[in-house]
Amino acid sequence: MYGSSRALPRRNTRQRSAIRDVFEHAERPLTVEEAHAALVARLPRAGIATVYRTVAAMVAQGGLVPVEMPGEPVRYERADIAHHHHFRCEACRRVFDLSGCIEGLRALAPPRFRVRDHSVTLYGTCANCGPA
Length: 132
Ligand SMILES: [Zn+2]
Ligand SMILES: [Zn+2]
Description:
Elements: H1 10-25, E1 30-31, H2 32-40, H3 48-60, E2 64-67, E3 75-78, E4 85-89, E5 95-98, E6 121-124
Parallel strand pairs: 4-6
Antiparallel strand pairs: 1-3, 2-3, 4-5
Helix pairs in contact: 1-2, 1-3, 2-3
């Protein structure tokens, strides 16, 4: 914990609140690099180390959750988004949120298997990258 006597540099405070804002308004999960790119559009001198530290703190505080996919850099999204799944564009490598879920997924499990959770990722090309 930081003591109240420890003054944090103002610039860092501004960067941290801008990083929170980036995730608050993001419409899809972001890697640290993507969050940094969005941040630099607003605060051109913001460093990526601040993004790493702020994201780690937000995860520790429960505000962000990691979105992990095999072989991919970890992305992060707000923890308060309702149950949903993801679409990964294989052309631009962005990951998008899908709304809704699939009925009957639990029925795939064999008898006496207890399903606790599931995640579904669709792969393909997004509207930007697919054929016009
Ligand atoms: Zn795409
Ligand atoms: Zn689901």
